[in-house]
Amino acid sequence: MNHYFSRRSFLKKSIIAGGALTLASSPLGSIVMAKPNERVNLAAIGIGFRGGEILMELHKTGLCNIVALCDVDMGAKHTEAAIKQFPDVPRFQDFRQMFDKMGNQIDAVTVGVPDFSHFPITMMALDLGKHVYVEKPMARTFLEVELMMEKARKNPKLATQMGNQGHSEANYFQFKAWTEAGIIKDVTQIVGHMNMPRRWHGWDVNMKNFPPAEPIPSTMDWDLWQMQTLGHNYNKDFVNGQWRCWFDFGMGALGDWGAHILDTSHEFLKLGLPTEVGAEMLEGHNSFFFPMSSTLKFSFPKRKGMPALDIMWYDGINNLPPIPEGYGVSGLDPNIPPPSTGNLEPAKLNPGKIIYGKDLTFKGGSHASTLSIIPESKAKDLANKLPEVPNTPSNHFANFLKACKGEEKTRSSFDIAGPLSQVFCLGVIAQRLNGKFKFDPVKKEITNDKFANALLIGPPPRQGFEQYYKV
């Protein structure tokens, strides 16, 4: 029997029988829609590039109605697909106007915009009682992440989810099961690595100024694009993903990929915040954009029943970590998406991690990729002692929408994703200053460098955005 047609006939019978399901036909294929009164009314803020992908993934679950689209460059080419998919949905350029006009029709929002602009949108949404799905990392400064966590704690009935989608896939459930079974234990070092070319590779590290002003596209609200930041003239190298390159706007390779590589280690090894952070090596360090290569060290103290642990982070094309004996081949796992630059050239080492325990060493990839015990002989010895790993009950997008309805708990809620994002904020400060510092995880202060400590807060917000810094 053809399973595709038998499934369709089953769904049609279900629709006739009880109206429980509807089939929506779209370029994405047939989507099984929940009953209208069981769908979450969702507004998408940022509908091009990654924001557009998030929108489509949430739509594909059949658990939401798309009720509003918002983008500061609504007439740009990269917004066309979303507008074509949802031609009758109201559109806005300014998230504040969207909330003013449609707030009572919105249950939840997606925030798929540049890292630095996650903060004001998320804070306003939570204030208005909206569930929030925000792309990773949560925010660009340590303080902003802290305030987002506080705001979420004040609104415990609201679902929050950071968009590190592997946190709802095989990697998450395997790491959880292996930790609980004592397979992953006594870990003293984790090596994270991302050695693919980045957007800023090849730029002039001796630049003395930001790039010159260019004409602002007629479709774009450049003033609003800058959000709480101030003082940049429009240039094409600030927008459409290029914002990742700059200290003022993005989080470099660490913020971009760290949440996909280090997330499960951070949660299940209960790492919290480090006590020391340092740039061990930076190649091409400058005042404007991220180094060509970085080696960073994060030192975490002992936790209950767990030894002190260091995370080493390596980025840069030739800045590979030491490879342990018996590592084997670094094949590109299909669970690892290509970088947002679309770069598909083979890397010398694919994004991932090496985890060193007292008795066992593990290698893993990024996103949904699962761990392997190395060397292979050791893996074979333990094959029949490994616990069963459950399948995921819902992908990251369905998990969020089900949490909005009170049916599940989000797996990357702000209380879990916040401290992880703050680790990246600390790493970026070390990159920016090319330095090392001590950090007090209780007081949440850098104790031996006033300049670095000031970067936890960042520059004051421009006029009109101060309100978002109040919890």
UniProtKB/TrEMBL annotation:
Domain Gfo/Idh/MocA-like oxidoreductase bacterial type C-terminal stretches: 208-269, 377-463
GO MF annotation terms: nucleotide binding
The organism's place on the tree of life at top rank: Bacteria
Domain named Gfo/Idh/MocA-like oxidoreductase N-terminal: residues: 41-158
Name of the protein described by the UniProt record: Dehydrogenase
